[in-house]
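User: Could you walk me through two proteins back to back? I'd like the raw sequence and the structure tokens for each, with a short line separating them so I can tell where one ends and the next begins.

Assistant: Of course. Protein one, sequence then structure:
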Amino acid sequence: MAFSAEGTAHRSTVTGTRGMVASAHPLATLAGVRMLLEGGNAFDAIVATAAALNVVEPYMSGIAGVGYALIHSAKDGKVRALDYCGPTPHDATADRFPTRDLQEGGVTSCLVPGACAGWLELLERHGSMDRATVFAPAIELAENGYAVTVKNHVFMSGSVPRMRPTGAAIICPNGSGPAPGYILVQKNLARSFRRVVEGGAEVFYKGDLGEEVAKFVQAEGGYLSGRDLADFEPEWVEPVSTSYRGYEVYTPPPPSSGFQILQTLNMLEGDDIVEIGHHSVEGLHLFIEALKLSNADRVKYAGQGDAAPISGLLSKAYAEKRRAMIGDTAAVTGGEYFPPEPVGGAVPAGSDGDWMNECTTHFDAVDAEGNAVAITQSLGSGFGSGVALGETGMFLNNFINWGDVVPGSPNCIEPHKKVDMCLSPCQIWRDGRLVSALGTPGSWGIQQTTTQFTTNFLDYGMNIQAAIEAPRFRFGEPGKKILMEQRVSPEVREALIARGHDIEALPDFSAIVGGAQGIAIDPDSGAMMGGADPRRDGYALGL
């Protein structure tokens, strides 16, 4: 498919021929482009972008967070996934979390930090530059400060109530989130980055920086230990994929929930959604109901990790069977978590008999050599745990909150266990050529919103910027409530209500439905087009 002029975009599209970076903040995108301008490749660019995002979007992701990278190495010629999501600490058990509220923040709420190891694995295996060069933009931004944006202010202010004292001292020393234009300086973070530059992953996981982290967490009553850090290594895994109207769509495997995107596409493939109409009543109803079904399977199976019956879940025959369950009126969803008690009338997950015959930030970088990386990584909630680790300037994730405490749940918290991961970067290929690297933050809304802008791009022929900007919806809590941007016409929303959907209107552009970024590649010319989400501070730059 060549580039399209279709779709209404709030922002101008961005093109390039030598490389492109798209991320959730212009300064982070610029850090990645700086590597490309200095002769680096997409892997150098993506790590520089990741580190810079830690500085300029510190509430979303950071070096003590977790993530997945979906990569294509031109040298190897393969699509692979790097899992740098840490497990629960060895001392974490469900009975230590009597209520979910206790998991929302603080030092008890973390998974083992994986981002440091993940970034350095990408750089050392596939990059072309040294650590000092790649971390330089982030260190400069942290050392000298950067000017807070309007959206920075909104997100930071919203996180103030859950901030712990060490975090508040960095982000809100005056008791409130920094105002737009405030120069936020993070010298301790700059020093930690320099220690990583000098000592590599060793210093974070087995050296003095890791020792400092573990001692702080233990002293504050947390479970993360030096043993947990020393045991951690990122893992190269094979992605999962499905064919969709001639395209091959890839995501990381379970415990990533990316298979929900693929399963939903399989269900949609049985209908001519273009003929049905974009954001028509019938089209939106179909999308919503298909996502409820795939969400039920995600809740049941993602936490099983390698044991998840992925070939069955992604079989076309199973998709057809699930698609046949969609009726004319809204079904009940059981919600995003494994429920303590069954939700009456909720759409069920599938079981073996159904397939036995078949079997939050995102950023991208692409270069002219054919290297491509899509990363979705996170701290969890805003600033993760709300805890800055002593004098390191690093915010600790709170991703144990994505586990649960329900006995019998495949996602129940246990010692040293991987939990269901919402993070789901994507790559799309056709005839052996990369079509797009894309993704979004948004917790378990990721799987819902990614499907929407992916079909905007592949089915409705929108350019990547327009595909990202188009109105979106998501659901979360048990029941029939659907959060939908009000740019979907009132008439359509009223008709959906008449079909049983409980529609709650969101503002025109709401961060509740994600903050997507994407890069598309023209198969004929090799030119690149970048899209970035105005729901956050997203920017794409090409050269």
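----
Protein two, same layout:
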Amino acid sequence: MSTKQNIFQTLTRRDWLKSLGGLSLFGAVWSAGASFSTKAKRERNILLQTLNIKASAPPPTATMEGSPLRIGIIGFGGRGEHLVRSLGYATTEWLEEMSRAEKENPADTRLKEFKDQENLNIRLTGVCDVFDVHANKALQSFNGNGNTCKRYRTATEMINSGEVDAVVIATPDHWHAPLSIEAINAGIHVYVEKPMTHSIEETYTLRNAVIENPKVVFALGHQHRQTQSFLTAQDAIAKNVLGHISLVMTATNRNDDNGAWQYDIHPDANTKTIYWELFLGSAPKIPFNAEHFFRWRKWWAYGSGLSGDLMTHDYDRINCILKMGIPKFVTASGGIYTHRDGRNVPDVMQINMEYPDFKTGTSQEIGKEQGMTFVYSATLGNQLDRGTVLMGHDGSMELGNAVTIFADSGSTRYKKMIEEKQIDPYVPIFQYDPSVNGVDAVTSATAKYFANKGLLWTYRDGKRVDSTFLHLREWISCIRNGGKPSCGIQEGFEEAITAHMGGLSYKLGRKIEWDNEVQKIVALPGEDLDAILLENKV
């Protein structure tokens, strides 16, 4: 075979991906073909040097030394437990469950990974949860071994106790902003789960509170910002590997009760064990309803639907890479098509976000390329993994816990290399998989969904690490040593406004516009946008 001949002709795309999957760090470029000839190896190295994509970890955060930081958890449900575990505190029940799992399956490393976590030098000094069972579980697990954890009946009591330096907020959405604002104004550091806010007005109020209290460190819980593959993708975009990106497509695909927020209802839930009035807060006043309490994501009164609950993951993943900010226009559609169980948030939703002025660089004449559409597509009735794709003039990027880049057959940048058979558009020119020799075992379709979006783990030096742990460590490091969290108030503001635009478009059935000059969503005469957004109807 001539060295000028296409070395890919004997390899299928499946062969290539299989070969690429086992390679690490700077990824694999032409690895399978490189074994065919010295020329192929040389061309592979030239291409690697040309792309110059760096798969390096972020700089390490500073020391955790000093006096222990006193942290309180507000909301100790499923997500609250995970956050506390990432801080170094696991419940007795979880430890027992993981110990059994490890004995049954030695390949189950969850307990070992928890024990190997770095000590963040914090004390979990307070818990606030309106459900007695949740609060008591924390008290029984976290009082001992030199730690004292106290239950507070209300978050206000905890914030003003003088016994916490920082709070982690993992409540239903409608409490995120009110509690964050109260804590910040009291000088307490805040880590809050997404979405940042439940209404438009409180988005501005929270931003103002952070600006007016510069000594307080505020972080939003988009832990995928620690994911190694996303950091690698940032470098590829910065080096214009894809050319001008005109279309981004992301998706939510779930097809089980847990993925559709149909969570279990605890048998001990009743008016004696749940502080119902406090749970309701600003939501419409209704009699005690256990389903609303445990499955709150199914109603606009407490949650934010697909636009706020799940689209925000994908929006922030792309925003941390492209830094495109708030879209000029948003158009949404969908409905309740797969879970007609009384919920009033859609279970199928499509959101188009338009950026008419967006540019990522070009390999063509200046002025020819401008603008981008970001499409988010969701269904809770099918779990086909549609992945995330960034599509540019010169190449396309498949983005998950790994990064794969293909040159485009119509590329200007790679035209000569394609013509000379040095690049095959059907074979990746770059792949980075930080898992390398790791095993990403997941137990459900929903878990796979989260893993693919970088929400469960990432890698450091080939070792699997909890992404939430890294994100919390970053926040704590900023509190101790100064610095700015990777997902702070500006990133949170952009996320919240974009999510609210999606919710408004779905409810109003029209295109929603953002006026960047006045920093406001455009309302038509007579429209109360927050009233529309929070209306608790189908």
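The two ends are 65 Å apart (CA to CA).

Let me know if you want the two compared in more detail.
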